[in-house]
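**Reference record**
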Amino acid sequence: MRVSRETAPVRPCRPRGLVTKAVAEVADPPAGEASPEPEAYGALGPRSYPLAAVVGMDHIKQALLLGAADVGLGGIAIAGRRGTAKSVMARGVHALLPPIEVVEGSICNADPSDRGGCKPLLIATYNPEEGTLREHLLDRIAITLSAGELDGVTAGWVKNVPFSLEDRVKAVDAASRFQDASAPTLAEAAELTESLRTNITFAREYLPDVQIQEKQIEYLVEEARRGAVMGHRAELFAVRVARVSAALEGRDRVDADDLQKAVQLVILPRALIKDRPPEEFMFEAEGVILDPALLALAQAQQRAQGRSGRAKTLIFSEDRGRYIKPMLPKGDKVRRLAVDATLRSAAPYQLSRRARAKAAAAPGAAIRPVFVERTDMRAKRMARKAGALLVFVVDASGSMALNRMAAAKGAVMRLLSESYASRDQVCLIPFYGDQAQVLLPPSKSIAMAKRRLDSLPCGGGSPLAHGMSLAVRTALQARQRGEVGRVMLVLITDGRANIGLARSNEEPDAMGPDAVKPTTEQLKEEVLLMARRVLVSNLQMLLIDTENKFVSTGFAEEIAKAAGAKYYYLPNASDKSIAAATTSAMNEAKISP
């Protein structure tokens, strides 16, 4: 087992004695002298690769952040074969930890007379090929994960299969650049590293005030019992992980996301009964993060189905579908005559009508047995099951365009393959360059979708307002044709628009080289106007925010509020997470009044 030497213990209290002169000089330089540059610290020892620059391994990085925020977890063990970045990630935590104070003149940097307990942050890495780690030792460590293929000790349902081709290329490129010159990599990761360090510092302050409900503890205990986990350490560690997860997010209460992490990181690796858990408890392959709210989505979907069974959407008309009830005809023409209702309407007047007919008829003339007048006629009201229309509006601009388009394409194909019985239709509208376009018109044909989605256009500007405008027009046209029942827009964007409606609509004043570009406020107002149009048109919308939270403007959430839309933050949305969020939103819409 290899224990990281650079993971320093956190400061339990202010030690007695003098602070080391060298530490004091670094923390507070003499007057008139500049603070030492980061480059100066590199001479003190080997540089560590920044944790923020590690490609993939998101579950391990999350576990390391949890351990750094709460040393009471008892440590983190990372298993993996050679070259899986175990030690790199362990060393990278050192840069995220707050500084500690040492005592001058002590070989152990502490006051020997101070017998206060020391709470170090233990981060252990090991290779299962070199031997099996004893389980009683692992049981005292809160989180045990694998940095490669699953092994016998850390095997659970936490999956981390080998990287995709794209991720492996990124990892090789990043490592090569760091070996050639470490300064650029350190500079690129400096802002994110500082942000993570600040989050850890605040999390330590928030942690004592974080509350967890009794029913949430019962849930964690039940999960441990269901997995036949021995002892009570798993439940105790799971509660701590849930609380520190909430603290890292700046919350004072534990929610479903925190419970999900606790089950993933603590309980499942210890489970003796390997029943396949629900999909919401699994890490997705190829380094793609599933919807962090997938547990809540699945539970909401189950509740929706439990209350109403399989919700159906009906379209009413006078010519197509199943006869459900009679109605007064609209206009002079009756398309489908409801014979039963018409006869019932005419029945009370038969005696009087026969008497009038007999009085007016010649002696001995035959009298009709039934008299039906125009006022008796009733039309059939027909109803047929209709699926929903899902209009995917995808931001195909910028560096993440290909990832967003690929995820949207996967979600479209996944929903189409599951929509035969429900008659759902799917439409895909990417916006990039100067305009949006309907890449896939409303359709339920898988073959047509494959043909249309073979090429994925992307890059250029972000005409967000035009994309929303085109989506609203497409949805309203489909509704007016009576082809679908419900319509839902699924907007996948980071909320950053830089192309105005005037240019997208090819207005002459906006197309010239000297045309005045709209300001940021004007672009935002155009987008919010389109969002309010979605609300006024009685269209439902789901907004999936893919913006990096460390540089977030929060505008995507404003769009969701203006449109009355459901909002999910999925910076690394996959096809499964998009499909799950869309299905959940549709189920909730079907049972809403």
About this structure: The chain has four domains: 2-17+52-205, 207-292, 296-312+387-591, 316-383. Residues 182-206 form the longest helix (25 residues).
